[in-house]
Design a protein that fits this description.
alpha/beta, 61 residues, single chain, 18% strand, 3-stranded parallel β-sheet, 3 strands
């Protein structure tokens, strides 16, 4: 399998997966509701963003 572009990791353990993709040489970003370790790329309420998008609103990135 070949991954083209950037990898986006969501929800639980997103930072762990992001770091593993980076070790493999891929560009990766993670999204989570908290930044407990100071490493989360995008801090946001993912459930709220999904609900907003479902209702026709634009998501925040």
């Amino acid at each position: 399998m070949e991954i083209k572009g950037r990898v986006h990791c969501f929800f639980e353990q997103s930072g762990t997966f992001k770091n593993e993709f980076k070790k493999l040489g891929y560009e990766a970003e993670d999204y989570d509701i908290q930044d407990n370790f100071g490493e989360t790329d995008h801090v946001m309420d993912l459930f709220s963003e999904i609900d907003k998008s479902y209702r026709g609103g634009a998501i925040r990135v």
